[in-house]
Amino acid sequence: MNRRRALQLLAALGTTGFVAGCGSDTDPQPTTNRSPIKIGMITPQAGGFKSIGDEITNGFQLFLDLHDKRLGGHPVELLTADEGDTAKTGKAAVDGLLKQGVLALTGVVNSAVMVGIRDTVEQARVPLIGSNASPSSLQSVFYIWRTSYVLDEAGRALGGYLRDQLPANGRVAIIMPENVGSPDVVRGFRQAFGASDPRIGDPVTYTNATATPGKTTYSADISKALAKKPTAVFCFFAGAAAVEFIKQLREKFSGPVYAPGFLTEGTVLENLKESALGIQTALNYSADLNNTSNRVFASAYRKKYQITPTTYAMASYDAAQVLDQAIQLAGGSPNPQQVNLALGKLGQIDSPRGIWQFNQPRTPQQKWYLREVQRDGQVMSNVLINELATLG
C-alpha cells in the first residue's frame, strides 16, 4: 500500500477504524479465534448480603451478554464461589477458584472478606477487580483493583454537604454498625464536616454488625443516640440491615436521615416503602444519570432483570469493562500478570456513572451524587438531586 492510498483510507475510516480493520503484526491471533478464559466471581450466595451479590452477578453477566460473552476477544467461562461472611470463608472461595485456573477474580461484597483475602490474592499474583468492598485499610496492593469507591469518600461527600445544610443550632446523631467499614465512613464524614464542629461532637453510637438483624436489634442503641434530641441522623447500613434499621429508627424519629447510598439501594426500597421517603444519600451512581453509557446500561438492565440497576450492578458491569480492555491490551494468550500490568495502562473509562479512571491506590477517581428517595408512581425511587464532589 502506497502512502497516498493509506492517507485516503485514514481519511475515510479514521485512524482507529483503520488500525482495527487491518490489525497489527503484534497480534498473536485474530480476536475471533482466541482461546476460552476463566473468570472467578466471588459473592455472598446466602444471608443478608445475598441481594447485593445477586446485583453484582447481574451487572457482570449483562456486560458479557452485550459483548458476545467475550472479554478481550476471548470466550468467557464465569465461575462462581460463595464468599460467606468471614475472612475464612472468603479465603476458601478464592482458593477454590485459583485451583481452577482463573485468569482474574472479581466481586467481593464484605469488607471483612476483602481484608481477609488480601494476602492470598497478592501471593497468587492474580488480579482481583473488586466491585464492592473497599475499606481504606486496604493499602499497598498490587493485584487488587476496585471499581466501586473507598468508604471514607461516601462520608466525605455527605460531610461537606451536610455541614452547609444543617442549621447553626442543629445536631447530628451518628449511628453505625460496629464493622470494618464504619470507621472509614465516620472519619471521612468528620473530616469534611469539621471534626471540631459541635454539631457532630457526640460520640458515635455503634450497633450490632449482623447482616440479618431482628426486629429489635437496633432499638436500644437508637434510643441512646436520640437521647440528646438530634435534628438529623447520619448512618451507614446496607441490605437487610438497612431495612430493619430504618424501620426501627422511624418508630422513634421522623426527622431527616442522611447516609451513604447503600442505605436505600436495591431491594431496600421495596421493603421500606413510605418509611424511606425523604432520605438523602450520597453515591457514585444514580440510575437516572443522563449519559449515553447509562442509557444503554440502564435500559438493557431493566429489560433483562425487570428492575432498576444499582451501584452494585454498575460497578460489576465496569469490572467486566476494565477486564475486557485489559485482556484485549494483554494480547492473544494473556496470563494473570500481563492482565494486571495492562490494567495499569488503562485511561478513562466511559461508564454509566460518568467518566472515571483508576488512581494510584487502584480505586476510581469519580463523581459523587446527592440523591433523595421520592415517590415515582407506586414505587419509591432514588432521584438524582445534584453533583456533590469529585473524589478519589
Automatic annotation (TrEMBL):
InterPro entries from the UniProt entry: BCAA_transport, Leu-bd, Peripla_BP_I
Keywords, alphabetical: Signal
Q: Which residues form the signal peptide?
A: 1-20
Q: Which Pfam families match?
A: Peripla_BP_6
What family is this?
Belongs to the leucine-binding protein family.
Fetch the SUPFAM superfamilies from UniProt. Answer: Periplasmic binding protein-like I (SSF53822)
What Gene3D superfamilies does UniProt report for this protein, alphabetically? 3.40.50.2300
Q: Does the keyword Disulfide bond apply?
A: no
Q: Which organism is it from?
A: Micromonospora luteifusca
Q: Where is the Leucine-binding protein domain?
A: 36-378
Question: What is the protein's name according to its record?
Answer: Branched-chain amino acid transport system substrate-binding protein
PANTHER family this protein is in? LEUCINE-SPECIFIC-BINDING PROTEIN, PERIPLASMIC BINDING PROTEIN OF ABC TRANSPORTER FOR NATURAL AMINO ACIDS
